[in-house]
Amino acid sequence: MTTAPPLAPRAGIGLKSEHFAEIAARRPDLGFFEIHTENAMGKGGPYHAWLAEIRQDHPLSLHGVGMSLGGAEPPDPGHLARTRALVERYQPALVSEHVALCGHGATYLNDLLPLPYTEESLRRLIAHIQRMQEALGRPILIENPSTYLRFAESTLDEPDFLVAAAEAAGCGLLIDVNNVAVSATNHGFDASAWLDRIPPHLVGEIHLAGHSRKVIDGTVIAIDDHGSPVADPTWALFQHALDRFGPRPTLIEWDANLPPLDTLLAEAALAERHLAALAPDAERIAS
Amino acid sequence: MTAFPPAGFPLAGFVANALGPGPTPELIAAITGNGLRPEQRLSIHRNATRIGLSEALAAHYPAIQRLVGEEFFAALAGRFIEAHPPRTPVLAEWGGELGDFLADFPPAAGLPYLPDVARLEWAINEVLHEADATPLDTDTLGGTLGNLAPGVLPRVRLAVHPAHRTLASPWPVARIVAANRGEGWAERWIEDDSATISLDEGPDHLLILRPEMDVAVLPVGAPGLALIQALAAGMPLGAALAEASPDNADPARLLGRLLGSRVIVGVSL
Fold it and tell me: Partner of A90 at 20 to 30 A CA spacing, among A48, A101, B178, B222?
């Protein structure tokens, strides 16, 4: 299976139902749109009507939030089947999922909970990615999480854990640069050094988003709430990622306090300026 | 197969952390605080679950939220989330028990119409995401039925649109929802938009239907409701009309109203 980016390395935005009509009318010049897979799991109705119309003009990325690849149980067969049906219907350029636990037993917590980074959870994650890829008949990308806590029993560093999972499962990585920044703040590590441990050939997509900060007992905690512009230090980290990985399809995520479409398009245009300013591959590797 | 989570790994503690009184001692012990107490780090996850699910519930039930106010709704959502946490990551399909939950929620006892308001909003949510189908227009349907050989009509089966639900309520819930749902709902359904709604305007017998992309809430009367329910259950037309109108008062009028409602998508024998 290949992990080469099947999309042009341009910027895209999250597709929100509030913007459907405006996007269908304006057909903005974007590299792609991304949706949360679970939001498209209804049988019919206006969501699918708009999505089908917008899909005619733009590539699509399906980004799942509920497969719980890090969970105790294998991916739910029903959820896999519904995801496969969407893949067949909309032929997305990318399919991605989070490295996370989404609940336990039958309970879905609507959260992306962190995994312990142990050999056991690595083996289980690899098996679950493989199960998903077999069900879809195509490789996926797995996304690094934003985390707020660590487990005492973890024995692997996060980049090593993710790279080992991707190499063993034959999937790619979706590097969420904002998540790296958030986790670096919350655990006190060097975000650039984290990125430097990711082999460029594994990276199929980049995510950018805003986060907020709150102070708990004098300690700054970054909250990955996707409710504000991409912060300046995150743009700098994005540039570092591009210098290392080369140009990659890059998504602007904005889910809370949704702004007008033009605000998202301006963020995407800024990302495209970073992408366009990169030296061609040969020069960059030689330098 | 290797056991996962590892023996003793307190995965279930996350459920207690998010939905119960707080994290289990086992989960707290498994987390490195790194400058904070583990409970403080876990509180971020508790908030993520509860805020995200409250917002999803409010998106399903805007009229309920407006009727009870944001503060009451937040408390209601918190109790509901604990009692009925999602069993699916598809949040459009979560929250349908709110009507029944409200019926047994003492703080809401003074607003006896709330459970049916919630049931109507849930029906609207469900038909929005149901399968699409093309309704037969009145002329096509009337022509098809009119061309049948004598005696065949009672044996005909009419396929009911998948994007439909029915609701009977002793309260005027259609007007209550229309007046409180915002975004043009009132103009879409309500001809009489006088400012006050009298609770003795009920009962309502409602067809919630999405013939194409827009949801309509249509008063169809008790016989109309019974007819649609009988057809949806697979009864042939003759038996369905008898079921809906046992005294056989005016089956022609009942059938005429049905033909105009855009709820029929197919005819078969």
Answer: A101
- Provide the pLDDT for residue B9: 65
Q: What is the pLDDT of residues A52-87, one digit of tens each?
A: 999 999 999 999 999 999 998 899 999 999 999 999
| Residue A172 near residue A201 (C-beta atoms within 8 A) | no
Shortest distance between the Cα of B260 and any Cα of chain A, in A, equals: 22
**Nearest Cβ partner of B52 from A110, A121, A150?**
A110
B45 to A113: CB separation less than 8 angstroms, yes or no: yes
What is the torsion angle, in degrees rounded to the nearest 10, for the CA atoms of residue A127, residue A133, residue A135 and residue A137? -150
Mutation target for B interface from A47, A63, A149: give the one with most B CBs within 10 A: A149
Report if residue A3 sits inside a domain: no
Task: Please determine, for residue B4, whether its predicted confidence score (pLDDT) is greater than 50.
Answer: no
Output the six-digit token pair for A277.
């300013």
Q: Give the separation between CA A73 and CA A79, rounded to whole angstroms.
A: 13
Q: Are the beta carbons of A113 and B53 separated by less than 8 Å?
A: no
Contacts of A43 in chain B (CB under 8 A): 129-132, 162
For chain A, what is the mean pLDDT?
94
| Measured distance CA(B181)–CA(A8) in Å, rounded | 42
A37: domain CATH number is: 3.20.20.150
Which of the four pLDDT bands, split at 50, 70 and 90, describes residue B224? very high
- Residue at A4 is within a domain: no
Is residue A4 scored above 50 in pLDDT? no
Which among A44, A109, A118 has CB closest to B15? A109
Q: Count of domains in chain A? A: 1
Domain-by-domain residue ranges, chain B? 12-111, 138-170+203-268
Q: Which of A80, A108, A124, A185 should be substituted to probe chain B, the one whose Cβ sees the most B Cβ atoms within 10 Å? A: A108
pTM of the predicted structure, to 2 decimals? 0.93
- Token digits of residue A44: 């019919």
Nearest to B160 by CA among B136, B142, B125, B144: B136
Count CA within 13 A, CB hemisphere, residue A97: 29
Q: Which of B41, B53, B57 is most worth mutating to test chain A (most A CB atoms within 10 A of its CB)?
A: B41
B3 pLDDT above the threshold of 60: no
Q: How far is A121 from chain B (nearest CA, A)?
A: 7
Q: Taking residues B252-258, what's their average pLDDT?
A: 86
Residue A139 in any domain: the answer is: yes
Proportion of chain B above pLDDT 90, given as a percent: 76
